[in-house]
Amino acid sequence: MTGPTSAPSRLVIEGLTPRVDEGRHPVKRVVGEPVTVGATVFADGHDWLRVVLGHRPPGARAWAEVAMHSVNPGLDRWEATFVAGATGLHRFRVRAWIDHRATWRHALARKVAAGVDQPSDHEGEPPARWPAAEAATSTTVEVDVDVERALFSTWYELFPRSLPSKGPDGRVRTPLVAVAAELDELAALGFDVVYLPPIHPIGRSFRKGPNNAATASAGDPGSPWAIGSAEGGHTAVAAELGTLADFKDLVAAADERSIAIALDLAFQCSPDHPWVTQHPEWFRHRPDGSIQYAENPPKRYQDIYPLDFDSSQWEELWAALLEVTSFWCDHGVSVFRVDNPHTKPFAFWEWLIAHVRQRHPGTVFLAEAFARPAVMARLAQVGFSQNYTYFTWRVSAPELVEYFTELSTTPSVDELRPNAWPNTPDILPWHLHHAPIEAFALRLALAATLSPSYGVYGPAFDVGENRPAGNDTEEYLDSEKYQTRSWTTALRAGPTLRPLMAQLNQIRHRQTALHTLRTLRFHGTDNQSLICFSKTDHRGPSVASDRPEAATMLVVVNLDPGQSQAATLHLDAAELGVDPSRPFDAVDLLCGDAYQWHGTEPWVRLDPAVAPAHLFRVTQEARA
Amino acid sequence: MTGPTSAPSRLVIEGLTPRVDEGRHPVKRVVGEPVTVGATVFADGHDWLRVVLGHRPPGARAWAEVAMHSVNPGLDRWEATFVAGATGLHRFRVRAWIDHRATWRHALARKVAAGVDQPSDHEGEPPARWPAAEAATSTTVEVDVDVERALFSTWYELFPRSLPSKGPDGRVRTPLVAVAAELDELAALGFDVVYLPPIHPIGRSFRKGPNNAATASAGDPGSPWAIGSAEGGHTAVAAELGTLADFKDLVAAADERSIAIALDLAFQCSPDHPWVTQHPEWFRHRPDGSIQYAENPPKRYQDIYPLDFDSSQWEELWAALLEVTSFWCDHGVSVFRVDNPHTKPFAFWEWLIAHVRQRHPGTVFLAEAFARPAVMARLAQVGFSQNYTYFTWRVSAPELVEYFTELSTTPSVDELRPNAWPNTPDILPWHLHHAPIEAFALRLALAATLSPSYGVYGPAFDVGENRPAGNDTEEYLDSEKYQTRSWTTALRAGPTLRPLMAQLNQIRHRQTALHTLRTLRFHGTDNQSLICFSKTDHRGPSVASDRPEAATMLVVVNLDPGQSQAATLHLDAAELGVDPSRPFDAVDLLCGDAYQWHGTEPWVRLDPAVAPAHLFRVTQEARA
């Protein structure tokens, strides 16, 4: 840079990608993911430019710079890639300047090539003065690099209180101890997050009975989301589930198996919650002085008081909720499923998540908001690691293609990490009402392969529980939210999805192509009942043998649970990384069948009685 | 707003449109154009929102606010429109808050409707406390509102020195006086901008001869773009064209006819320009001390020295160029065609145009840059009122549809105003090489109807001059850039396009639908040789008789100059504003034929020997 009298920079740097919300929120990545930075860079005239990408990992004081290369000169587009090598806040920026020496050298070369000049005309003729390089620097973009689990995770939700009260040895145990006893089975099934509904004391006032009955009988356990009683609130463990010590033991046992115990952050209170008397100002009051319960007319939730984030005591309330979260972090919880975050202020979540991650950097927050797209995106932007999605209701091939194309491309893919759930305790989706277990199987196959993170609410899902509470509701009949359910008999009798789960999850863990969303590409089929898509490792397609774990995966799912479907596929060879002029191999990792395909239009067939999907590992011999 | 202890706003306002370059540059409009503002606005929860658009015209101190209406609740999208009523910098912003009273009222109404509550339950029960309205306010967006001519203008470029040296009375006159004598004819043809190549003294050193010959003979006039001689530089009038007084008379005569005389701002110098000796530091020097001339290897332009914007004396240079521009503004020039702006710094133009428009607000700048898209857009963003376009080379229907769809939709339509030229003194495009005059006619019809601003380089265009300087160049043979050409004989003998020009321009002036780009919509045809599009007045489709000047225009152009072409059109009735279940009228304003169409698939035919286009005025009787 020259002194203050130098002219303003002649360069323009614009159209920087990736960015989230025009740079107001960090771009999301997990460790090991590449960040391919693009920028439109140009100056007036025809001078040669130098464009460099600067990258500053967390803690670094200096910018590491690498040259960007021109990927589309007609559009003035430049690119370079860095890999997010560590968790934390990375920064990147683009810097560019006019390369006067290169401009002169290339003009000279063109003149010599055109025969206008001879090289000897320019002997020892470096131009008198190189103008100082007036560099231009882009704005700085932040990249929030998280632990891999924020992107790739496999969730199992269960109600501890429904587990058998006696262990195999016949001795009575608490439900939390029973969960610990399930961990080996869940690990064998390939789950790495076990999510428990709220484990806190449940209120007595207005407690709901089975099937959301307005009144409960003496033995009814109540909804775990009606949090708080004389026993305690959000930092207490319900006596009927066990003790805090049981919980700590459970977390430790899970940890040994690389499983995270996820807790539910449901920031609401039963009328019996200690805060109701200790902090009445945190709730909204009616003119008669009573506290306003939750309602969504004509529905009334008399067992739940929402917290009032508009209260004048909002600062105390925020602090208390951070204290709750920190309490569980301090007890080893690193994954939270957050209940209805879209009914609390975005600014609150931004503040809470930032504070938690400052002390506990690897903490993962899953936003349970089945809300409008702008709301979902905003929750992701303010810091949620993962979001529940509309996958639950996307059934047909066009719906799935449209939705996952949106999720896997910018701007969504840089901010929102989907977690696909075929069911939840609140949602038995209409297409699974009275559906055969083959319908559950195909939804499982879709969730496990389309989305890097997915989860099921089991064992209801495992056994294909398909009875809704009514024709016009997606609530389960005899929902576990309001009563205990014993699944032992159904699990033992079968059929269950557990063998398929185990296989799918094992393939997911081994095949790194399934760890990413960014490389998802849909391929054509001539039958709308079959959906076909591929994924490659984020390092790009690999069909050679040097990185066997990074092979390209090609998935075909039969969306028809009732009958066999066949189709000719129309594959995009470039997306698969194969040379279509030579044969290539496709091994179905689910059934073991191996095919050699000639050309890009193989024929496939799926019988739902046998398997919901093909999970082809695609490889090709290196050219001889 | 409550005091400093109120919680952060719960509202999000994002996705504000229109904006240019994420708000870094003003949105462009001309007087009378509507600005439809869109915003995505939402909060957590389910409260009712109030969203208002604030508009602050130039000079106003207060925001005039109007309610925005929800146009897509699922996408949280809100809209409202204001009209840019005066030139200058307008501002808009969006403000939103939670309407607690409406939230309460609507919840109550739902409860009563659901039979849960009776109205009497709530007698005199306004809730105890309305939380203060925590309003959120968006960033402020600027809208640069220009004179109508910045959008809608009809240009004619001519070389004064080629006009007959004697007037009809047989008396010798200067070329500038000859231009004044042409004004009645040009006004009758419907042009409102007459653009003259540089009128300044032409250098002698390295003067080019006819057809860009390296040496000139004694009588050769040289290129007007080789500016400057001992007579003077950019503020002088070449003696061979007339005097400054002649020029002032010309401007005044043009003004009487509502014609603007446009000058060429070509910021470069011949070796004889006074600045070369007065300010050698404004030029780039070779090691041997000589000044570097312009070159684009293997081409050399020894008659032209570029200015060095990287010079340490850049501030003096900028000031001198502003002085040049201001000089001509002070002499009544309000329209400039800027030569090669893309070879001078963007920051320079931003500064120059802002300064000129501060003193002379109605000044229009046309950027002559046939450069890459990012460069074109940037020139528009830094203040150019209009840009030359790639129209010159867009020939086929798909090319034209793609390009004009891009130009007429965001982001382009909010920043770049196209000026479509079928030819220029530099460009006889390849598709007009040796082409019949019918080819020129169809290009004229396209330019005049697709783009609110268009221009021709005449009289070469009027007479269909079609001889290139060679097979591999788009330069004209015997280009007027290097020699004078007499067009009198050709214009008199015919055929010429002048009758068609007069008709097209008259229709353009009368039909306000042709004054805008924003409403351009393409309709289907079953013959790629016929292109079909419509435009409506920016106030929306009008087919009734209340605003006859604002009728919807439907244009069909035959892209085949060689033979008749027919097609069935596939019209979008909604875009035309007609009810397709009733007959509607289409009058071809070019030939006068009137049709009554039943349905949206009329059949049309165009014979290039008769007319290049249909310009239908579409109307429909109001329902009885």
Notes on the protein architecture:
Two copies of one chain form a homodimer. Chain A has an eight-stranded parallel barrel. Chain A has an eight-stranded antiparallel β-sheet with strand order 28-27-30-25-24-23-26-29. In chain A, strands 2, 4, 5, 8, 9 and 10 form a six-stranded mixed β-sheet that branches. The first copy, chain A, contains twelve helices and 30 strands. Chain A is of the alpha/beta class. Among the domains of chain A are: 11-146, Immunoglobulin-like (Sandwich); 515-619, Immunoglobulin-like, CATH 2.60.40. In chain A, helix 2 (175-188) packs parallel to helix 3 (244-256), helix 5 runs parallel beside helix 6 and helix 9 runs parallel beside helix 11.
Write the layout of secondary structure elements.
The structure is a homodimer.
Chain A: E1 11-17, E2 27-30, E3 34-43, E4 49-56, E5 64-67, E6 69-72, E7 77-83, E8 88-98, H1 100-113, E9 136-137, E10 141-146, E11 153-157, H2 175-188, E12 193-195, H3 244-256, E13 260-265, E14 268-269, H4 274-278, E15 294-296, E16 299-301, E17 305-306, H5 314-330, E18 335-339, H6 346-359, E19 364-368, H7 373-381, E20 386-388, H8 397-408, E21 418-420, H9 437-450, E22 453-457, H10 488-493, H11 498-510, E23 521-525, E24 530-535, E25 552-558, E26 565-570, H12 573-576, E27 584-588, E28 594-597, E29 603-606, E30 613-619
Parallel strand pairs in A: 2-10, 11-12, 11-22, 12-13, 13-18, 18-19, 19-20, 20-21, 21-22
Antiparallel strand pairs in A: 1-3, 3-7, 4-5, 4-8, 6-7, 8-9, 8-10, 14-17, 15-16, 23-24, 23-26, 24-25, 25-30, 26-29, 27-28, 27-30
